[in-house]
Specification:
With 129 residues, the chain is α/β, with parallel strands linked by helices. The protein has 6 helices and 5 strands, in the order αβαβαβαβαβα. A 5-stranded parallel sheet has the order 1-5-4-2-3. β4 (86-89), α5 and β5 form a beta-alpha-beta unit. α1 (2-24) packs across α5 (94-105).
Length: 129
Amino acid sequence: MMKRRIKTLIACITGFALSSCAQNNIRNVDASEFEQGIKNDSIQLLDVRTSDEFATSHINGAINIDVLKEGFKHIAKNKLDRKHEIWIYCRSGKRSLTAASILAKDGYKVVNLRGGIKEWEKKGKPVVR
């Protein structure tokens, strides 16, 4: 019984430490800061919405990997480079935070667009249609 409690405690502490480390790899920024950041050639711009949403409008230069599709982590691992920051967005900022957490736990540094493409467009920022 005591061994089981100790194992559970260790698992909890490890999980907390890993999630804290992951959160350190995620930064949330507004549309203006995001616009400036994606001008850097060394970043990777990622749209995690569905392919239909992406086809409707997206930020120029973005690649599309749907976070809700099975295999998101595997697809991301094959398409993204851990050496370069990922600047990520979705429609409103919720799915991109989910994706950011997944990627950060896997060692990526992620910058999330707070408010998503809705906020981007509200601020008059350019999109590809």
